[in-house]
Amino acid sequence: MNANPWRFAVGTRSVPSRAEFTETAQKYEDWGFDALNVPDHIGAPAPFPVLTAAAQATSTLQVGTYVMNAAFYSPALLARDAAQVQTLSDGRLMLGLGAGYVREEFEAAEIPFPSAGARIAHLDHVSAYVREHHSDIPLLIAGNGDKVLTVAARHADVVGLTGSGADAVLAERVAFVRAAAGARAAELVLDIAITASPHDDSGVPSLAMTRQFAPGLSDEQLLELPSVLSGSPRDIADKLRRLRDTFGITSFSMQDKHAEYFARVIGELR
Q1: CATH number (domain holding residue 102)
Q2: CA 198, CA 209: separation in Å to the nearest integer?
Q3: Domain span holding position 31
Q4: Across the chain, where does the E strand assignment appear?
Q5: pLDDT tens, 141-183?
Q6: Whether pTM exceeds 0.85
Q7: Which of 5, 16, 156, 185 is the most buried (most CB within 10 A)?
């Protein structure tokens, strides 16, 4: 059994007002979530100001990016801004990084869209820079392919996995990360992105997001994926224990629409 404690993170894509966002961040902390994450997309809130506001509104909630598009940024400038959030949050920042993949967002930002190899090389460069200059900032690196997961195994404290394949696929990805990490393997926290979870007592999740990543699977097959949660809070808690005991996954990142129902799952596990 993995001895690491559970870690539960919830993402937000909306900041309607300071008062409402403050109330939301405090609510997540009260519900037992460990972290609040903000994505990095054109049209979504600016991550670092939002994380600073969340840190000011809470006392224990970790604040993080899931994930910054490393290809958008100079390592020195990104590290400068992250270090300021780390200071203002009293050390509660988890800097999440990814290689970037949406061509339309590069076009909207008026930034050239590099090749996949160039984006991954830049992710490696940014990660190494933060490690060298701001070793107090923990890193989460998320991805699915061999090259990104190799970067994650080299630099990350938390490795974000997609969970969009069946158990056998997840097992292979976990084994790959652990092999690539070598002596660091025991130190890694493994995270999985939850793409579907119930939001009411029906226990039935919407599979719309999951289907985007696995369009050829039936509903029954989608419900079996590691990234999909269904049933009662106790049912979901049992699935998370299985993912922990089978794959060593102890960290789970989900969308804000899943948060209230999932708070009951946290109650089952703690």
Answers
A1: 3.20.20.30
A2: 13
A3: 7-269
A4: 7-11, 35-38, 62-65, 68-69, 93-98, 139-142, 158-161, 189-193, 249-255
A5: 999 999 999 999 999 999 999 988 899 999 999 999 999 999 9
A6: yes
A7: 156
